[in-house]
Specification:
membrane; DUF1772-domain-containing protein; mainly alpha; transmembrane; 205 residues
């Protein structure tokens, strides 16, 4: 019994950090798609692609870190909480939710490689091509199909990036559900232990 409180605190800390980190990641990615990119697209192409580079360079270092931390914490919670009493087997829903959340968060990495990075590379090439153009020149991409222009690529990036936000949001929701289910199963464990002890006392009488 003396070992339970530290474990309980550690699990709650992992739940709090995992859910908060994933929710922050979802909000940050959604903010880029809904707020930052549309604002950038208002600028001329040479300036827009330069602003995109700044946003990318600011978010690139910590986004993978948040993904790895969240995935590791949810994975730990899923593994840790599979160790349940046999009579509480039906409450193994929350370990599955944590593990699913871990897989979802980690899937942001391959999703990014397959969908976001190709657009990012094209925007980097655009930045190099337009590096000598005037930042206020609106005619630098005249005659180019919209999907191949800086604004077309930014539009596509925002859409693909929104997919990452949706994945992170789903993972945060599953982690929250798992935490609620865990709290419920912990309550059932306490009640079951109390009933067992009370029954044993009655038998002693």
């Amino acid at each position: 019994m003396a070992d339970n409180p530290p474990v309980r605190i550690g699990v709650r800390l992992a739940q709090t950090v995992g859910i908060t980190t994933t929710a922050f990641l979802a909000g940050q990615l959604a903010g880029i798609s809904f707020l930052t990119i549309p604002a950038i697209m208002e600028a001329p192409s040479p300036l827009a692609v330069k602003q995109y580079q700044k946003v990318r360079n600011n978010s690139l270092p910590y986004t993978p870190l948040l993904v790895v931390v969240s995935s590791a914490l949810f994975g730990y919670l899923g593994y840790h909480k599979c160790k349940l009493p046999a009579w509480l087997g039906w409450t193994c829903l929350h370990p599955r939710l944590f593990i699913t959340a871990a897989v979802f968060v980690f899937s942001i990495i391959p999703y990014s490689i397959l969908t976001v990075e190709p657009v990012d590379h094209k925007l980097e090439n655009k930045a190099e091509t337009l590096s000598t153009a005037s930042l206020t020149d609106n005619s630098t991409e005249a005659g180019i199909h919209y999907q191949d222009t800086v604004k077309g690529l930014l539009d596509r990036f925002a859409t693909m990036n929104l997919g990452r936000a949706a994945i992170a949001f789903a993972a945060a929701a599953m982690g929250t559900w798992g935490a609620i289910a865990h709290h419920h199963s912990a309550h059932l464990t306490s009640v079951g232990s109390l009933h067992f002890a009370t029954g044993a006392n009655r038998m002693g009488h």
